[in-house]
Amino acid sequence: MAKRKKLLVTGAGGFLGWNLCRAAADRYDLIGVAHHRPVAVPGGTAYRCDLSDATAVEMMFNNVAPDAVVHGAAMANPNDCERQPDASRSINVDASLQIAECCSRRRIPCVFISTDLVFDGRNPPYSEISTP
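-> structure tokens emitted (132 positions)
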């Protein structure tokens, strides 16, 4: 039997991440990443990591050695983002860049999931120059 691939899912404590873990658990060795609250990853292993800590992210990639990553962790509440712009940038921008760089260096696929609060859904597909 072929060895199952390891899928690392960030944001496993959120609605989308948890459901993605649940859906993927039968096809992958699943590692669900959460930071603030402990999470039971359905059919997988929970991993706790502060994604705003670049050293911790690098260690996570070294420890887990994923074959692919789905990055869904974010500070998604707009009010929280406005009240805490530095924390919002740290997780939504800096951590995303760190994860993408870790994937790039290891030549593994990375899927980035963003919030539905950026665009109204009326004129997809969107690009980097689309008006939010």
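The first strand starts at residue 6 and ends at 10.
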